[in-house]
Amino acid sequence: MENERIKNDQSFFKILAKLTVAMIFTVLLLEGGLRVVLSLSLNNYLTHVLPQPYGRLMKRAGEFDCSARGRSLSVVKFDPLCYFIPKRGFFRGPEGRVDCPKEKEAHEIRILCIGDSTTYGFAVDYDDSWVYLLGKMLAARYPGKNIRMLNAGLPGASPRQVKRFFQFHLADYHPDILIWRSEQSLTDTYFVNETSDSLRFLVWRCLYESRIFRVTCVLLDRNRRNGRPTVDIVHDFLTNRNPRNQKPSEKFDSDFAIVRKIAAEHGTRYSLQVERLFCNDSGVILGLLGDPRRQAPWPVVYTRAAFQEYMKNNPSKGLFADKVHIAEGGETVRMQEPFRTNPSGALFVDNVHLTEAGEAVTAKEVSRFIIDNKWIETFQ
Q1: d(CA 287, CA 277)
Q2: pTM (2 decimals)?
Q3: Per-residue pLDDT averaged across 146-174, rounded?
Q4: Helices 230-238 and 194-209, packing angle to 10 deg
C-alpha cells in the first residue's frame, strides 16, 4: 500500500514536471513565432501603437545625450531601480561619458551636479554647459583650491530616477557640495527596498521585451476608447507607482529634501537647489520652485530674475534660438548644430533647455551664490 502511494506521488510529480516543461516550451515557441511574424510585418505597427513608458524614457535618453547624437549608439543600460543608467561612465566629459575615482585627491573639493538633460547641458557642447562654466568661474575665483566638477546629468530622467540614481550610484562619490537643478516635486520614498524593487523591475523588463505581452495589450485596448492603456496599468503596478498618491512620504516635501538627507549621510557639507525654468510659447518665463519670497528650508538659487534681466538688457536677442525645429511627436531635429553656426544670443532652445547664453546666466547665478556664502572658503 505504501509502495503504491509512493508510485502515485512520483507519477504526479512526473506529470507536473512534464506539464511545466510543455508550458515553457509552448510560451517560448509562441514568443519565437510572434517575433518572426512581427519582424516581417507588424513590428512597426506594434511599436507605434503600444504605449511604452519605459521605452520612451530609454529613447529620449539617447536623443538628449550629445555623445550619441547622429550615431547608432546605445548610451544607457537597464537598471532595475533607476529604470536606466549611463552605460559608459556616470559623468559627462569632453568626448562623452567618463568615470571618476570614488576616492578624492588630497584637498579636493568635489562638486556633484545631478539632474536631467537641463543639468547635462542638452544642445550645448561640454565646455558651454553651466556645470563646466561654474567650475571655471570657481577656479578663477579660488586659484589655490583643487575643485573638481562632476556633471551627472541623466538626460530623459524623471525626478524619481534622479533621486534613485544618486541614492544607489552617486552618493558613494561623497561630494562636498551637491547641486540639483530641479523643480519642487515629491515622487519617491526615502527608503527603497532594493530586493523587492529589483524583482518587480526585472519582471517589468521581461514583460516589456515580450512580444506576447505587446500583442495582448494591443488586443485588450483595441475596442476600448476610454481609460488608461493596459501597458500603463501593468507598468505602474509593477513599479509601485500610484497616480492617486503623489505624496508617498509625509516626512519630506520634495525629492530634493530626500536627496539632501542622503547626501548629508555621505558627508556632503552643502546642498543647493537651482531653480528649473519653463518658458511657455507666449514667451513668459516661469520658475518651477514657486514664489522666491517663500523661505525655503535649504539653500536655493532662483534664476528667473536673472533671465528676465538678461532679456531687459538684450531686447534684440529674443527668447528662443533660431533654426530649431521640434518634429511632430516630440522628436528633436538638428538641436545642436544651429548653435555652432548661428549663435543668436537667445536663452532657450525649447521650453526648458538652454542655449550657451542661458547656460552662462545659470552658471553666473550659481557661482555668485557659492562665492557670496563663502562655501569654498570653509574647505581647508
Answers
A1: 5
A2: 0.77
A3: 94
A4: 160
Give the up-direction half-sphere exposure of residue 298: CA atoms within 13 A in the CB hemisphere: 23
Residue 251 confidence (pLDDT) above 50: yes
Residue 188: count other Cβ atoms within 10 Å of its Cβ.
22
- Its CATH class, for the domain covering 56-190+249-378, is alpha beta
The Cα-based distances of 360 to 134, 336, 371 in angstroms read: 8, 16, 16
Residue 207 · residue 234 · CB < 8 Å = yes
Span 125-144, pLDDT tens digits? 999 999 999 999 999 999 99
Task: Determine contact, residues 116/162, Cβ cutoff 8 Å.
Answer: yes
More confidently predicted of 109 and 185: 109
Give the least confident one: 64-68, 85-89, 365-369.
64-68
Cell of 131: 556645470
Residue 31 CB neighbour total at 10 angstroms: 15
Rounded to a whole number of angstroms, the CA Rg of the chain reads 25
Please state the domain extents for the chain: 1-42, 56-190+249-378
Residues 297 and 271 sit within 8 Å (Cβ to Cβ): no
| Of the candidate ranges 50-59, 179-188, 289-298, the one whose mean pLDDT is the lowest | 50-59
56-70, 200-214, 304-318: range with highest mean pLDDT: 304-318
